[in-house]
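Quick question, first post here. What does this chain look like in 3D?
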Amino acid sequence: MTRPFELFDLNLPELRHRAVQAARGECAFDVLVKGGTVVDVVTGELRPADIGIVGPLIASVHAPGARADARNVINAAGGFVAPGLIDTHMHIESSMVTPSAYARAVVPRGVTTVVWDPHEFGNVLGTAGVDWAADAVIDLPLRVILLAPSSVPSAPGLERAGADFGPQELAEMLARPDIAGIAEMMNMRGIIEGDGRMQGIIQAGLDQGKLICGHARGLSGADLQAFVTAGVSSDHELVSADDLMEKLRAGLTIELRGSHDHLLPEFVAALNTLGHLPQTVTLCTDDVFPDDLHAAGGLDDVVRRLVRYGLRPEWALQAATINGARRLGRHDLGVIAPGRRADLVVFEDLEQFTARRVLVSGREVAAGGAVLSLPTATDTAALTGTVKLDPLTPQDFQVRADGHSVRLATIDRPRFTQWSEITADVVEGVVVPPEGTTLIAVAHRHGLADGRPRVGFLTGWGRWRGAFATTVSHDSHNLTVFGQDPVDMAAAANAVIKAGGGLAVASGGSVQAILPLPLAGLVSDGGVAEIGAGFAEIRSAMDRIVDWQPPYLVFKACFGATLACNAGPHQTDLGIADVVTGTLMETPVLETV
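> Answer (accepted):
Ran it through. Tokens below.
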């Protein structure tokens, strides 16, 4: 599918011929970027140079003032000219806005290419979600490289999503020219243990010669070696500096992500100790909430923070440009050099990285912090009506049992979960939540199975003074509800159901804040500022009902509490699931006394 900002193949003979003529001074440039300091991501130099552009092609990078003949001149005086930033792994849906709204937010900040795994849409809408994603990025000034979701669902047999992508579905998607590879392979145990489904999915990518991206949280030693040997070639799930180094040594492309800020300082320290930046270190955002996106930005914010934590600016830009381009096999991107695609950003400095002007394929698309023309929005009718649940009652959030007391299985800790047990009283056939526990309930919302919630008990999640309901719940995105009072849980859940998806906070039996996300239960068609403000209200309401304990007991933990592909117990719409042991418990009740 042809994209407007890449209408011209760089190898068209007439384009190359005209660019050669311009480089020799035989004809004028279309655009001349003059007066700036070029950030050379190959040599690490900062050198004064002017840049002559013909169509989408850089024709010449030459001494300042050597040429003045151009149809259009962009004054970069005092600025630093860098290649456009490349985000090697992200989910637009995590920002809760459409691709056009996302482009309006990040392009003016210097992000010109993103690698989008639309597996949130895939988990809700199946291949129709991927098709919609492909259509929605055609007219954007942001280059979107689309991947085929491999994790629909992320833990087959332990959860139910709105669709199921096996080897056949992946092979069909990978045969499309607009699909660049397989998105993060999250079923780690299935890959390591030679599960036939996962082998078939990887083979589809190997057969097509396309990217096979990974999700290797907690993998080390023989498990990591097996994961990479199976064909996976990247990872963004780093948990420590030692983990970073082991995965670099294993040959993985590292997608160093900004969504876990508390780990970035130790990553910077480890890279600085090496004395050079490995060519396999790239940068990504993974997930950025809308208020953070509006306030701080996308990949530009990751670059900014890495530099603040002590990484050399040249290294940060190398990771965000040339290393990303190499990973993608896009030799036209990532470098300011003759013969390459003219994706350029004029930054004010190499500390705050404020973008002054942005060019994509030789066209100026943003200046002064705004896009120069609004991207076309895609019709969203296909994304509506995805919360297929009837209203719930407080009784739906109770666990029933016989006897006077029970022994319960609990899910301990908000991250890196582990099994635990606790005893509880039973009153009139209902388990009384023990002191120190938080209820979690997951209801299948895609209309393919029973929608009654499966209820479990969390420990280590603090004391809740209300409830939170969300249809943004990685990665099957079923309705997930947290709380200690079933009345509050029902109030929050029903507000989300009525809104057609979204987030809601309730306390005292009434809704305190709600953010409707009626498109796939994941996004809204509003702008980043509007949705960011609504999300900030949800955050504030959550701060009033939960006392967070960073770095693990944080608001963000609510959205990954059902991620059953990760090691340890997790609540899903089928019960308590543990991918390592293969355990699936429909009820947390272990024994009745």
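The radius of gyration is 25 Å.
The chain has a mean pLDDT of 96.
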